[in-house]
Amino acid sequence: MLDATVLIIDDDDDILLSARLFLKQQVKQVITCKSPKEINVLLSKNEVDIILLDMNYQKGASDGREGLYWLEHILSIDKDYVVILMTAFGNVELAVKAIKKGATDFILKPWENEKLFATISAASKLRESTRKVKKLEKIHSSLQKDLTRGFENIVGQADSIKHLQATLVKVAPTDANVLILGENGTGKQVFAYEIHGNSQRKNQVFMHVDLGSLNENLFESELFGYAKGAFTDAKEDKPGRFELADGGTIFLDEIGNLTLPLQAKLLSVLQNRTVTRLGESKERKVNVRLITATNMPLNEMVAKNTFRQDLLFRINTVELLLPPLRKRGTDILLLANHFMQVFSSKYHKEIRKLSHKTEDVLLNYKWPGNVRELQHVLERAVIMSDGNEISEDDLQLSPQRFAQNNSMPDEMALEDMEKMMVQKAIDKHKGNISRAAAELGLTRAALYRRIEKFGI
User: Fold this and answer.
1) Which sequence positions carry the modification called 4-aspartylphosphate (predicted)?
2) Which domain holds residue 52?
C-alpha cells in the first residue's frame, strides 16, 4: 500500500465510487468530492499528495477548459502538488496543453485499474522525491550558518565533567528528552550537539533554536511554519523548525524565557508530535529528538506559576547540570590551551604556550562569563600576542572585574548572579544595550527580557 493521500474530484458519482473502492486498497487515504469549488477547504484540512482532477463539469462540456482553470488554481496554492487530469474525451492537443501548464499526467476514462495504479504509483514517487528536495533546500537555507561553523568537543578532566560524559554515553543513543541547565557560557550548546553526535540521529539535522531571540509574535511561524497568505508577508508556504528537524534533533535554547501561552502551544506539539502551520488546519506529524536548555531555575519558576509543571515533566526525562568554569579547577588551563591552539591555527600564528604568570592569572579569575568568556579572551590574546607565548598583558583582563569577581560568593543563586552580571554590564557601558549584550554573549532581545525580568 502506498503511503499517500489521494484527492479525487469528479462530478460523476459512479466514477468517484469506482475510484474509491479500488484505490482504498492501494493507498493510505482516499478523499472524494463532486465540485472543484471545495478544493480550497479540502487542501487546507488535509495533507494531500496526489490530486485526480476531472476536466469537465458543466453538462455537455468536452473542451477541458474547466480542468485547466482548476489545475492552475491548485498549482497557485502550491506548485509542488501532483495533479493527474482525467477526461472521457481523448485529445492529444489537450493533453499536451495540460502537461505544459503543470499537470503530472493525463488519464482517460474509463480506465484500467492496472493503468490507474501505475499512474498513481509513479505520481507518489514523484511527490516524495519533490518533498525531499524541498526539505533539503529549506534546511540548507535555514541552517547555513550552523552548517559552516565547527562545534567544539567537550574538553575537561574535572570530576563533574567526567560524570557528565559518563551520563552522555548512556543517554545519547536513546531518544530521551534532555534538559541542560547551567549559567550562561557553560557550553550548553556544545553538550547538546555532543548528544546528537552520539545518537542514532547523528546523520540527520541538528536544529538549534534560540528561543530567547525569538519575538513572541514570530514564535508560531518560526517553530511551526505558515501557509501562503497566512499573513501579509507570507508569500509562499514555509515549514517551521520542527518540520525541518524531522528525523533529527531539535535544540530549544533558553526555554525558560517562554511566556505561559507559548509554553502551552509548545506542550501541545510535544504531546501530540504534530504541528499545524499558521493559516492551515491540517496536522503534520514530526519525529524529533528534543533537547532543551536554560540558565533559569525552572523548579522555582514552577513554584511561582511562571513555568508549567507539565511542560517541565515533558522536557526533563534526563537533566544535566553544567558546572560554572570557576568550579572546574585546572580545566581552565586545558580549555585555555585548547582555544590557544584553535585560534593560533585560525590566525596563522605560532603560539606554543601560556606563560606561568598567565596561567596564574587565568586560574585566579572567577570567569563570570564561563567558557564563552574564556574563549573570547583567548581569541583576543592570540590576536594581540607578538611572540610565541601568551603573556598576562595579552589577556587584557580588567583589574576591576577581578576585584568584583573575587568578592562574589561561589554559592550565589544563579538568578541573583545573572541579575548582578546584567546590571554590571549595563553600568559599564553606560546604558548601551548593544555593547552590554555583546559582552554578556546575548542578543539585544534576550537582554531586554532580562532587564524586564529583573526590574533593572
Assistant:
1) 54
2) 2-130
Domain membership of residue 315 (yes or no) is yes
The residue ranges of DSSP E strands in 348-447, in sequence order, are 353-354, 389-390
Same domain, 331 and 309: no
Q: How far is CA 235 from CA 228, 232, 443, in A?
A: 5, 8, 28
Closest by CA position to 294, among listed 415, 159, 168, 452: 415
Is residue 116 a part of any domain in this protein? yes
Strand order in the sheet with 27-33: 27-33, 2-9, 50-54, 82-87, 105-108
| Closest by CA position to 136, among listed 48, 204, 197 | 204
Cα 410 off chain centre by? 35
Cα separations in angstroms, 347 against 353, 372, 375 = 16, 19, 15
How many residues make up the chain in this entry? 456
Query: Tens digits of per-residue pLDDT, 48-75?
Result: 999 999 988 887 677 888 889 999 999 9
Looking at the structure, tell me whether residues 53 and 7 fall in a common domain: yes
Bridge partners, 289 (sequence order): 249
Check if the beta carbon of residue 204 is closer than 8 Å to that of residue 244: no
Q: State pTM to two decimals.
A: 0.63
Start-end of H helices in 316-369:
331-346, 356-364
335 in a structural domain: yes
Neighbouring CB atoms inside 10 A of 250's CB total 23
Closest of 206, 203, 171, 418 to residue 316, by C-alpha: 171
**DSSP summary character for residue 152:** P
CA distance linking residue 55 with residue 95, whole number of Å: 11
In a domain, 55, yes or no: yes
pLDDT in tens, 196-248: 999 999 888 899 999 988 888 889 999 999 988 888 888 888 889 999 999 99
C-alpha distances in angstroms, 64 versus 42, 70, 270, 440? 22, 10, 46, 65
Domain with 108 in it: what CATH number?
3.40.50.2300
345 and 269 co-located in one domain: no
| 60 and 103 part of one domain | yes
**Alpha-carbon distance 179 to 199, whole Å?**
16
- Boundary residue ending a domain (278, 304, 321): 321
Q: ω into residue 110 within 30 of 0, thus cis?
A: yes
Count of the separate structural domains present in the chain: 4
> SS3 for 442?
coil
